[in-house]
Amino acid sequence: MTKAGIIQCNRRFIYAAAIVALASGISGCSTTDKTTTGSISPAAVSAGSLPTGNFDQMNQEQLMQASASLGKRYEANPKDQAAALNFATVLRMTGRSDQALAVMRSLAIAYPKDRQVLAAYGKALASTGEFDAALDALRRAQTPEYPDWKLLSAQGAILDQMGKTGEARDLYKQALIISPNEASILSNMGMSYVLSGELATAEKYMRQANNGTGSDSRVRQNLALVVGLQGRFDEAENIAKQELSPQQAQANVQYLRAMLSQQNSWKMLKDKKQPKS
């Protein structure tokens, strides 16, 4: 595997909100949420008899049940904003990103100036790889005089995937000015350094994120990922065990070992110049 291939694979499992299949670990290269950890919260919007709570905490069976219920509500009234937002979220989390985008595209037509709708539409676009359109939607959702740090962080995550690292990190810094010590921003910044192969710096940010405001399972799994990419597999497995079953944690570390052993791919990352912390 070439260095470009390694970095691309890293991008794919780093940017799954899963970040990965919603915090299910790093057992493969998958793509779901391209705006990473906490950039735009997938927590359910409460409205009437809609399923409520945090979708992150649901297992696949529960998500499918929520999808069926929300689908009926959406079908009855496609302009029901809360139902559509929740339905699109669950569709993305169950791997149906194209369908989620179709739902959000229709909602954006119905509510072209609604910030919440535009933000969710941008997330749906990013999930299908339509990065330019996603950035446009997120920028339209932003209010310059009162910028939203979540949107800035989401824009940064998309720019990172487009290879615009400098622009991405500038946005993370702006987001941190608004919300200092916010775990999700620090996590995104850390992942930015993973993508450029600067693993020591990435770990520094991920440890800050782990101790930051709003730190959650996804942040700790990102820390395990960064530690594992540096070859400290036992430490990575111990961190992962805090969030996953021992079997899942072990499987994740085995996957990392296998990936980094392919055609000296670990050496490619290890030999890359590391900045001083």
TrEMBL record:
Keywords: TPR repeat. SUPFAM superfamilies: TPR-like. Coiled coil: none annotated. TPR repeats lie at residues 149-182. It comes from the Bacteria. The keyword Methyltransferase does not apply. This is Pilus assembly protein TadD. It comes from Phyllobacterium endophyticum.
